[in-house]
Amino acid sequence: MKNFLQFYTVWGSKDYLLGGIFITLQVMALSYVIAFMIGLLVWSLRISKRRFLNIPAGIYVEVCRNTPTLVQLIWIFYCLPYIIGIDLNPILSSIIALAITVGAYMSEDFRAGILAVDKGQIEAARSLGMSYRQAMQKIVIPQALRILIPPLMNHAVSLMKWSSLVSVLGVADLTYRAQVLSSQTFRPIEIFTSIGAVYFIMSMTLSYIVRYWERQWAMKY
Amino acid sequence: MEESKIMVKVERVNKFYKKLHVLRDIDMEVRRGEVTVLIGASGSGKTTLLRCMNHLETINSGRILVDGEPIGCWANEKGVLCKDPERILNRKRSQIGMVFQRFNLFSHLTVLENVMLALTTVKKMQKEEAREIAIQQLKHVGLPDKIDSYPSRLSGGQQQRVAIARSLAMQPKLMLFDEPTSALDPELVGEVLETITNLAKEGMTMIVVTHEMGFARELAHQMLFLHDGVILEQGTPEEILNNPKFERTKAFLGKIL
Fold it and tell me: Which of A26, A118, A185, B66 has a CA-to-CA distance to B89 between 20 and 30 Å?
């Protein structure tokens, strides 16, 4: 029992782990922003009437949704340099890989969000003489974004958790550093309990902030 | 010069939903400054006919002239279907007001913003000018103190009056009403009908789909009874309500009066 639950081992390496948290947040934030842009792009390709645009976009979404994220991550790390001819460092290819995956899910959400906007809103806009584009910009997209807050928040939380996968590529994120520490100190229980708690607190904080913000917004209308 | 008295002229219009023939060779005319009421059972095509008049629905043959210009798409002399480019269609639509059964106010915008939006985006007005017009229109429908509310805070009757103000702000030459009071609680119907009545007295050309027969009798210059996509009867409200020619009309009136 004497050797059990020595959390001070973890506390002693807190600076090392904090650095990992920083990298985790960095990977998450950057891939989220890129995923959002990919999501918008793929969504606009998918609703296009031109088949050479919407079919590849559809294939992309299905491939991303039906293969494991870890496999995608490793695949992109090894294959993307061949495809684009540029060597990528692990952190960059991790960010790209996560963005590509989450972007596929986001594009599906954008589609659902836009469809969820009442058709009557578009009809009212068009009957006033607004163009399709104006109706989208002024009416549909603002209302869809409101509908999309919960799924978009879920993606942020998913990304935070999926970002732990980048440790397999040697990116020194929180999970990677936890593995290093536990092999040095033979204290996996304490270390992984602690970083689990850290992930939990970060995800919950994020959810709460978004929900609070959503409620403030919902109060308006 | 006879033609200029006509605001809407519908010529042999047919409309299909897949195989369903919803409008069959419709011919009708609406004179400038007059109120036309469309009645008929649900599924008779009256709402579809109204929606064809600003091209929310596409017609399959014939044409609809609004103030002498065909709208949306139409067959030319050779029978080829022509289509308005979007820019032209938008200009034509901006001159036709439409009021929907379910109000369709922009739910993320305040009452004032609802009325201003088309002025700034379609008519490219400055904000201040649009604001002035919007406030004036909201006063006109009796809602000057609600300008900063969101639609969800308003009663159905108030929402519909805002929707009317939103259309009127564009200074339309024609107003289309698609069952404007059907989604309202009974005690709220009066305020909306009053607004529409005032508009009629100001000489607005209007086409109204409604089941409010008292209102129709009082205001309509012309009444059309649609049945299965055909205009079965046409005349003044007195003619149709007091002496319907067809059994179908009698049966319909018997149910709703």
Answer: A118
Burial class (CB in 10 A: 0-12, 13-18, 19+), A138: buried
- Name the pTM for this structure: 0.83
CB–CB contact A124 B104 (8 Å): yes
Q: Distances from the Cα of A68 to the Cαs of A25, A53, A74, A99, A160, in angstroms?
A: 22, 25, 10, 14, 16
* B77 confidence band (pLDDT: 50, 70, 90): confident
Strands B206-209 and B174-178: parallel
The string of pLDDT tens digits covering residues A43-58 is 999 988 899 999 999 9
Shortest Cα–Cα distance, B151 to chain A (Å): 7
Look at A129 and B117 and tell me if their CB atoms are within 8 Å: no
Tens-digit pLDDT profile for residues B89-141: 999 999 999 999 999 999 999 999 999 999 999 999 999 999 999 999 999 99
Domains along chain A with CATH numbers: 21-175 (1.10.3720.10)
For chain A, list residues whose CB is within 8 angstroms of any CB belonging to chain B: 118, 120-121, 123-132, 134, 138-139, 142-143, 146, 220-221
